[in-house]
Design the sequence.
């Protein structure tokens, strides 16, 4: 029987294992629910700032039969906070979010602080990965990075950023270079700490928001630069892009990640048609996971498999009130299908 790490390694290599993998990376695609916290009596928001608690929740995702991986952190705000944004760490019901921007225009980006890997929540994440590396075996450890466009839009008003892509194009590129360099350093440190996979989620860098030209110029360019800056000896990389893909499939195919992840608005059969040679991940509706039934989750999971998904996962971050019985049904359905 394949271990979860062996199964994922085969998938990233373009081979066909016994069945699709079942993961939920972390980061934007947070996998921690209220039910899971109650089961192990470890809670958010405390685990956002405590490496031992963060690792305990990440391990519980695997040990309690939810997904076949561990992943940290559980939000998309670490990088922005370390560079100067103000963040509300949330609660047991809602995730951390930016409440104060660090700059008002790309022209001010030199005011931003470089990410200090030796303190703050960046250090918490790295310490949690080290704990997971020491205390787990045969389970992929997924480190997470917020994508370059989304990080840039967490440090300043996103609408202003989008406008300045046209009005201050050269300055935006300088800003994006700075952002990407910080993400590369954080990603390299996660791999060094023990992460097997790096997942990059860039929900603000969509084709719908940016349009095909700016999507290629900013999202694809800087995600690829980030990917090229990461070590290649580990299992692989995942890039998640939100929104419709129809206008930007050609540009998406230029992303150099080992796997591409899409949310539930993208029909997996359509994605497979446009990206026949890529490893695809997704995309069980998070609405169904929170408000549906196990039978509905099983049907959606089977549909993703039939449509050609190589890695089955929630389409986006889980609602924290999602019943754990629904969450566990994805993996249960895959194991039943294999049997």
Sequence:
């Amino acid at each position: 029987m394949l271990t979860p790490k062996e199964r994922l390694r085969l998938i990233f290599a373009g081979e066909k294992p016994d069945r699709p993998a079942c993961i939920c990376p972390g980061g934007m695609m947070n996998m921690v629910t209220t039910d899971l916290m109650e089961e192990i009596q470890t809670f958010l928001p405390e685990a956002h700032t405590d490496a031992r608690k963060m690792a305990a929740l990440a391990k519980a995702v695997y040990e309690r039969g939810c997904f076949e991986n561990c992943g940290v952190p559980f939000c998309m705000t670490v990088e922005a906070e370390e560079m100067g944004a103000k963040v509300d760490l949330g609660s047991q019901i809602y995730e951390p979010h930016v409440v104060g921007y660090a700059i008002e225009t790309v022209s001010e980006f030199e005011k931003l602080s470089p990410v200090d890997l030796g303190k703050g929540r960046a250090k918490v994440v790295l310490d949690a990965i080290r704990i997971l590396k020491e205390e787990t075996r045969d389970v992929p450890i997924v480190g997470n990075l917020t994508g370059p466009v989304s990080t840039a839009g967490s440090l300043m008003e996103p609408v202003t950023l989008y406008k300045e892509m046209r009005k201050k194009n050269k300055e935006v590129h300088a800003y994006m270079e700075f952002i990407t360099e910080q993400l590369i350093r954080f990603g390299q440190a996660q791999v060094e700490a023990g992460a097997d996979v790096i997942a990059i989620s860039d929900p603000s860098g969509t084709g719908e928001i940016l349009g095909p030209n700016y999507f290629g110029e900013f999202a694809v360019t800087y995600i690829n630069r980030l990917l090229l800056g990461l070590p290649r000896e580990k299992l692989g990389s995942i890039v998640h892009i939100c929104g419709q893909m129809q206008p930007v499939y050609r540009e998406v195919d230029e992303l150099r990640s080992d796997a591409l992840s899409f949310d539930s608005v993208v029909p997996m059969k359509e994605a497979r048609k446009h990206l026949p040679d890529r490893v695809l991940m997704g995309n069980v509706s998070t609405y169904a996971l929170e408000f549906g039934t196990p039978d509905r989750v099983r049907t959606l999971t089977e549909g993703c498999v039939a449509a050609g998904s190589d890695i089955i996962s929630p389409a986006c971050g889980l609602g924290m009130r999602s019943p754990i019985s629904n969450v566990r049904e994805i993996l249960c359905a895959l194991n039943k299908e294999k049997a």
